[in-house]
Please model this.
Amino acid sequence: MSGNHGPGPRPQADKPLRARKEKLGILKAGGPPRALASAYGSYADMFRKLLGEERYHYIEFDVEQDELPRHADHCPAYLITGSASDAYGASPWISNLKRFLNAAKGNAAFVGICFGHQVMAEAFGGKVARSPKGWGMGNHRYVIVRQQPWAGRTTEITLTASHQDQVVELPPASEVVAGNAFCPLGFIAYQDQPAISLQLHPEFETNFAIALAEGRRGRGIRDEDIDRAISSLRCPNDRELVAGWINQFLIRTRTNVPMPRRGTAC
Model:
């Protein structure tokens, strides 16, 4: 019998190497109402689905239970979720979250959504308050007032709103990217650190947003306002577009592309 058995399998080193996923810390500041969580998942689940289940190595921190990264640079970027809590509240976990944000400033990138948008503003020197305009619900359209390098040339975006509080004073070294008459400071970019924040909810799928609005009936909001919000939610929005913006923002921070000091006015 010949001892020649052919070339055999290729060495493991010849196989293409898989790119290592970057870590993205999700700072969970709250969750959906219990009645909806079983059907739609947590806010962290929604963001993984929005941004891509396999795009990042996601690490969750339950900040509402005072679970925070041990070191500010544990992850190169953090996403702060929505919450039913007030960003100006006195709960110890909110104070601890603000301290962490300041400790990590400049050492990690931040993306804040809804409560995340608000608590970043509070942590970095801005102000959040309960709006006298009442609840923002349904699909809201924001006008882009400053183009950003991680976004395209779109002049407006439409996403789901679900908030009573809003940022009323900008933090130092920040600028408005987009907003509307109801929420003028609804989308913020920071000039002294890689950080952006948005009051609206790109992570909310239509069915969840409708169910959330329906759950507010009988809680001090007029039925006609809820009906109007639900009607708007049945129209298309820009979830996928804004998901791409968030991913592009994180790519730019990961590859050390300098973030501009100022945006360009439209």
